[in-house]
Fold each of these.
Amino acid sequence: MKPSRRWLPYLFVAPFFLLFLVFGGFPLLFSLWLSFHQWEPSEGLGAMRWVGLENYAYGLTDPWLIDALYNTVWLAIAGGLPQHLVALPLAYLIHRRVRRGRDLVLGAYFVPYISSSVAIAVIFATLYSRDYGLINAVLAELTRIPFVGAWLPAQPDWLGDAAYTKPAVAFVVFWRYLGWNLVLYLTAMQTLDNDLFEAATLDGASPWRQFFGLALPLLKPMIFFAITLSLIGSLQLFEEPFILVDSEKGVARSVMTAAIFTYQTAFVDGDYGTASAVAWALFALIAVLTWLNARLFSRGAHA
Amino acid sequence: MKLVSRSYPDHHTAMNAGLATRAGLPDVMAVDLRFLGQFTAGGGLMNLADLAAADGTDLTRVPAFSRAQATTHRGELVAMPTDIGPGSLMYRRDLLQRAGLKEHDLLHSWQEFLRAGAVIKRATGASLLSSAGDLLDIMLRSGLGDGDGLYFDRSSQPSVDSERFARAFELSLQARRLGLDLALTAWSNEWAAAFRQGKVATQMMGCWLAGHLKNWLAPAQAGLWRAAPLPGGAVASYGGSFYAIPKAAANPQAAWAFVRQMVFEQSTQLQSLQVIDAFPALLELHQHPVMDEPLPYLGGQRARQLWRDVAGKVPATPIHKFDALATRVVRDAFEQVMTQGRSIPTVLREANALIRRRARR
């Protein structure tokens, strides 16, 4: 082989690595470097001043970041947990019962995941509208029913009142990522050995028994994988609250996540150093939680 | 000349990135008032006062208050105002008449403004305000003198726990409790619908609101709206557009010639007023006959005279780098008072401490 041939494969893979280094590797390292500096960006790169760990100390003790972390956890639980609680049985139902038009059903659940966030913002802003929204129109009808009506709130301002914004955003998160988890679980179920289920049926196990006793334990690796993805996604949650609640409004802080806090610190307040420090701290938090999640699941698997 | 046009937030993000890296900068950049504080903080923009001095351009031909907005703490004028937004109270004259009120019943004091609102509500069902937050915004601006900042005092310390804020919070809370506002977000669909359905009796904003009312908010209500000065003797300016020249500009001389043409040339400024309803920054134009033209949408009112007078009285309020941050903190504090019933002195003390902490760098 001629020496030039030896280098050819590297030449072919080079475009990816080049692009990755420019758009992936460099920004990562630069933000790490930046997190130890104070920087007034409009003065240019020369204005960076080394401050050591000060950005970390300052950023991580910010009262709004503490609130933002609370909001993030709230939305992760309220928006993330139901995704799995619904997707698992639903995937099982589709796997066992739906024969014709399965792709159509699956596609319908998957559409929200690939919808543009602008379309989602428009649709949900309309649904959640206080005066003209479908949800409040239905609520208004329901309040006429005796007994039930008394328990329902009258015309909530879903995206304008801090008491309702979190559930409203959590629902959109749930709606958007349900299909994704459904696809994950359904794929995993299709790889399960059908003989096991046939044997269980012969032994007289009910479909519910088969779900809890057979399908769930076998799906454990996939559940771990799906929950890990949800965990990472939830802690980086940005888009849904950002597009649903106008960040100029006072109420926006009720759904300000850690990622939105970071974004605002950088791009609104111009404090890129602190924002980078918070972003790296958030990365550390996600890494620790993912590790804990792995520990939790692997211990269960050995038992 | 090449014109690059981007969406509003994209443009300011791109300019910020350009200033940070000294790359991809235009010769002239347009800057909205909201981003001016952030852009003037660094040293990336040319001092236009030097360029003006070099060719004898008289800077007092544009309002002192808008020059103050574009002046850094180092005293450099880094942007040139091209249009301004004298604050005005737009009101529905027909609703006032049905309630048996006159314009001056709205204007005398803030307390009387609210009292008139209660009368309008009883007589017509319409709300005085689309949002109590509008009342807050404008009350915070009343009583400021030349050199006083909106959120920061002359020594750059936050002044959010002052009497001015407490009073504005109290009166806005009172308006909400009396049911005088619709608790709507400006520019939302519900907000626009409320105008169209005649649920809003007054709106305080820049004079350019008249253009929005005429073109899309309430074209059917032509002749029903009038413009008045802000209540309680308040004078304020809402928004404004500026031109800046980066220090890294390739053709600074041509850039300055362009800015001069856009700002100091009567015909250009007149055209902006006639085509896009941008109120001119050039003071000579305030004496032009165009100011005396009756505006058909406002029932033939010669409202530009009023706005010109307001523009002459707006105090020179310096812009602080952390104004945007302070706005966010104060709006959050206001929300806590309005919906969570927290006490005004407590939230203002907390807000002040938070701004002090955040603005330390």
Note: Chain B touches chain A through 37 residues (CB under 8 Å).
Amino acid sequence: MQSASNSPETWLTEHGDYLYRFAMSRLHDSETAADLVQETLLAAWKGRDNFAGNSSTKTWLVGILKHKIIDHIRKEIRGRELSESLEEDPTSAYFKDDGTWAKAPTAWRDDPEALYKSEQFNNTLEECLAKLPEKQHRVFRMREIIGEDTDAVCKACDISATHLHVLIHRARMALRACLEFNWFGGSKS
Amino acid sequence: MKHFCQQASRLASDAFERKLTWGESVRLKMHLAICGTCRNHTHDVRVIQSVLLKMRGNIESDTSITLPAQDRQRIEQALRQITEE
């Protein structure tokens, strides 16, 4: 029973597309996604003795892939020596001295489902993400786009949970303001 | 006294990341009850979150996205090499 599903070629045939889609949904980069599928299958072959068989092969492979995705983002962060001061709070720019909003947010009326399906909106979202400072960008991607849990992101980026929350709050503020200006502000029509 | 909007935006963001303490949750709710602008803001943030969630799920289940043939070939070769060792 083990032998039939224990060949990496079979894994590739049966799960290759799914693993690729999974990586694509998190990284939006075809080349990297394919590379990580390869790394995952190679690592799975090397670690095949550790596969207890109490989860499905697919679940096991996805688990390995998740680690590869996190590793990939972590390497990108390490390579750039990013720092972002916690003392200087960029979100203060969105508020007046008395603590009220400098530019009041409007309530978006668009349906998330329709937004998701709009290629134009997706492009605007990507553009706004790309404008985030690098560290916010990476942390936000890992947590909200890859969907990793807080612990994993903190470990990968070597930051505390509080630091993570600060960065994600900053990212959300910037992202919302950017989308309001570039999308909901009327430039779509 | 300073308005609570900036802190409210932080709490509303944290609410997606962790369980707020009882006190935090009460402060946030009380502020949102009286501040329409912050209600708009939290609404918008929720819209962003739903779109991101859909992005994760939908690409994953979109079977029209497949591993490109040349990548598949390259991976097959790499796997053959390692299994023959």
Note: Residues 43 and 49 of chain B are 10 Å apart (CA to CA).
Amino acid sequence: MTNQADMDHRLERGLRSLASWGEDLPRPRPWERAVAESSMPSARSESLGNSGPWYTRRVHPGVLVGVFAVVFVVVVVGGVLLPSLARSRQSSISFSNSEREERSALSAYSIAQPPPGDSAVGFDPTQTPATEELIDLLSRRVDPEAQPNTSAASPDRHVVRKATVELKTPDVRAAFLKASLIPNAAAGEFVQDSAVTGDVHVSANLTLRVAAARLPEVLNQLRELGKVTGEQVRGEDVTAQVVDVEARLRNERRIEQELLALLDQRNDAPLKDILELRAKLGEVRDGIERLDAQRANLSRLVSLATVLVLIRADAAPEPERAAPALLSKLSKSFGAAWRSGVEFLIGSTAWIVQVAIGGLIWWTIAVVAVVVVRGQRRRAAVLRGGV
Amino acid sequence: MERTDEQLLAAYAAGDQAALGLLADRHELALLGLARGILGSRTEALDAVQEAWVRVIRFAGAFKGHSSVKTWLYRIVINECANLLNARRRVWGPSVANGGSSPGDAGSAGGSTASGTPTFDEFDDIRRAVDELDGPKRVVVMLCYSAGVPHELAAEILGLPLGTLKSRLHAALTTLRRRLAQGVTP
């Protein structure tokens, strides 16, 4: 007991000795050195970390956190968002290109089909309406009654029009038959067809040629055959080909006339020369026939629009079932509620994990910022004598 | 009539340079002792107290009087000591950070062989045992054994309830006794 008390006594004296400085105060005293240090602007600013080269300065932790956050945002924006934006911009550009092609096709169509009083429709080829609107415009601006002539193309422009219509209908066979009858009424012709029948997959494809001026009317009739899942109208300008064929044709005919005139004038020429002249005349006439055929074909293509009709089977509507019993309805409701609950639980868990892991850097920044700010505030409070 | 600490600080903030000297005359010795007890080094204690005065000079005008000036001064010194300990730990690692005292420091304060006074070896053992305490316990022990710091003031300085302070002090002393009993022969 005495030893314990003695040890406590010694410990206390030792601790008091440790926590004492002695009587010899240093010269200059710390407060004097502090005054001297504070009175020197360079020393003071140095103590604040504002002097010397930039790489030797002390940086406030908050500034570091801010810089880190800015760098992170720049990296994220530059590395993730900008490429994504660029991708979406590219897809938008490609979409615009397809729209532009569609618009040029329609523009060519409008040039080839300038109906009288077109300004009343208000059609502007520079606009970019959606496909449905384009088809609608086509339907409105061409009046079959007003232009019964199939060769409605302008003498200046020659456009070959093609359309594709995709349909879904529960009764493919009926739609196929109705579609195959359309050319008869539209001064056109039935070109090609194919049909696939079976228990599960039933489909049919038809290629029709109809009078170009009646294309909108035909499209309207086709739309009534089922649910339209896709529709496309395109136009190809063949004016250059037509002009070329006609020029060559005129030239060949001129040569034919010249050869005939030469043959009339040289009745007394040797037989060999006459035979050569006739052979040459035959070649020229062959050329004229070919060019005539080409021109007729082009004219036919311009006057008749090609329509490709794709008919697919649509799922037949399910027969109405009898109302389920109350118990089974209740159990189904419970089952659905249970599934919804489980899905919600899984979804929310996945969301939490995603936020926790995906935002790890943000959490780190936030924690560091909170720690730094709390440390600074605590220190500032102590220095102000608060707490 | 003698001015209070608060009046001296206000006078210094108002431009009376001599007031700071009077304030230092009252507290500097105790602050140096506390810093030395916490840090175990006279040199570092001088640095800590000097830096504390720098802060006092800088923030004298911002002192709002939520606590006494004495409390404020002790808090600043303890914070500076904690900063130095942290810096020491970052540079040298925890073992060196805890064992920061030097024999010269110990010898300067110990060494008396008078009856009831720790001998040189005893003082060195106590120093080592204190250095092995963790930071908060060391601060509690040194603050409570500093001259002129009753337990109530120590609790206020550390922002602890008095009971908590006493229990921490008791735990720290128990640890010291055990270590001394294990490793030291008084």
Note: The interface with chain B takes residues 6-22, 25-26, 29-35, 37-38, 47, 379, 382-387 of chain A (CB under 8 Å).
Amino acid sequence: MTGSVSAALTAGALIVAAVATVAVGVYGGRRARTTSDFLVASRIVGPRWNAAAISGEYLSAASFLGVAGLVAKYGTDALWYPIGFTAGFLGLLLFVAAPLRRSGAYTVPDFTDFRLGSARLRTVTMLFVVVICVLYLVPQYQGAGLTLNILLGLPVWIGPVAVAAIIIANVVGGGMRSITFVQAFQYWLKLTAIGVPAIALLALFVADRPSLGGPLPPTVGQQTTVAVKTDVVVQVDAPTGVTITGTLDGRSVHDAPIPSAGEHTLGAGTALTLAPGAATPVVAGAPSTGTEWIGSSGGLGGDHPLYQLLAIIVATFLGAMGLPHVQVRFYTNPDGRAARRTALAVIALLSLFYVFPTLMGVFARLYVPQLLITGTADAAVLLMPRAAIAGPAGQLLAALVAVGAIAAFLATSSGLLVSIAGALATDVLRGRVRDFRTAALIGGVLPLPLALAASTLELSRNVGLVFAVAASTLCPLLVLGIWWRGLTAAGAICGLVAGGAVSGTAAALTLAGGIGADLLGGWPAALAGYPAVVSVPLAFVTMIVASRLTRGAIPPGTARIFARMHLPERLGMSVERVPGG
Amino acid sequence: MTSGRPPRERVVLAHRRGARIVRTRVEVQEQTEVGDALVRGLVRAQLGLALRLAAVVMCAIVSIPVGGSLFPALAASSMFGIRVNWLLLAVLVYPLLYGVGRLYVRLAEQGERDFIRVVDEEP
């Protein structure tokens, strides 16, 4: 029952998960020999395996931890993130899946080379692939640091270093051949790891039916002490039972009650104690009472909630199309028909998965409301089983959740690393297996300093920014490249640079600490935090206008290329491209 | 319809390699004017299908927050003990996405089959 037993259990479970990941990878990769094995698993992965592998890869820390955290904090409007993460695959199915596979390309830069035959565009695309993947690796590494820190009390840098070491070993060992098995295995692992605790908590919830939508903030059941690690502004609705030791509104206090309801600032190092039954203060900007939380359109902190929703919808619906690590999996399908079926199966698998993080987010408000004080609600999924269920059952569930979380980091990070390595190896180095391995090493180490330096947002929001960058760069490139004959290389480069510059600047500003929420009615902050509404149309329009202006440069073989992308394989037009060929 | 004679089927031991089959196929493969027109038709049909289905999904999804703000009483009412806005966003959206995806796969494959039939059809 002690903390050390529980920590040992969790540590043991994490080590088992890591060892199992490496073992499955070694098993799957034992016959990986050729570059085609490493890049596209020799294009023999069927829809079922592939769909599980794509889902396993796609469900990152943002989905496993972040969605529940956002739902606990912001309520109804946070549900748009899982919807968008799923709907992105519908967009991918409708506009990209089959033609992309039929192009016969093996990476995204290779697709642009196939379509427009420009070496310069190929290089620019390669840079965007690497930037998007590195940006996406950062929150994965940070999530790993957070998980190990919360569960085992380890320093924050250990998680990123451990995850980097494991995925580099796996990718260097077997490339795509190896991680296909790992990721398919990890989808089912993650589903179990969040499904079992969620169902256990659901049983608990149905048994005592506490109220969720009441007029009061959530309350704690027993005396709880919360340590504040960074300065935070909280909204206090009912000060009864809340005492504070440390810094309150800039004054040093000891065991003092909060004088009045309203917003208060807690300094770093403050301890906040809640008596049993006391209402929890909530980090400022998040809905505090149950009524606000369960209602719609409160937004996700900051002003302009409807704009935020629209931006999330645009970024996530279109962003999945532009994620290189997702696309690269579609190249492993045997044909275009299998690519469509894979995308459809992914929608089903994701829909099944997202039931559980949503439930966990709802329960987090009941069972671990103290997380809402500091705003680190990403930890909710990890802490809840032990907080809600006493005894060994709770400890076992907590260990299971930890395993799922680590699987989430490993699966997504491996996929991203294969994409980085594939792009670097074939476009910068010479495309041999040895180059792929060197590139994997470089790509895995590159995000480490960023992960340790960047300020931590909520994981889902962080990932949402990467989606915005993907939706403003690779998404227009693919959609126009597949459906519009008028695209030229110059137009594509202009669009990529315009969309990338706007969305990238916004993401960098937000990650570096954000813009003051009071500036110009909150619009600059909203635009920087959610840039997709501006940057996606900008990228499309730039690409179209610049292509019209350079229409003389439309490649002469475009008709034949369109026939290859869109005709069924049976007509014998498709040609598989190979690196260096 | 279960009783009665089964529908008549034509049994062909081998496809007759008529001149017409080769000609249309080759026209598509060699990108003659006729072949290119056929490919353009297929691309346009597939894009139209994708755009129409995307429009249906966007209308359905955008109507949720808009409907919620126009009729707050509706969003705040409950069904099966769950608030309607939660029921829609956490549960019902997902079958919609899958259903539209499934419909697309079926219609897109149908379109490709039709195309192959046109290309391979006998005179």
Note: The interface with chain A takes residues 25, 28-29, 31, 35-36, 39-40, 42-43, 46-47, 50, 53-54, 57, 61-62, 65, 68-69, 75-76, 83, 85-86, 89-91, 93-95, 97-98, 100-102, 104-105, 108-109, 112, 115-116, 119 of chain B (CB under 8 Å).
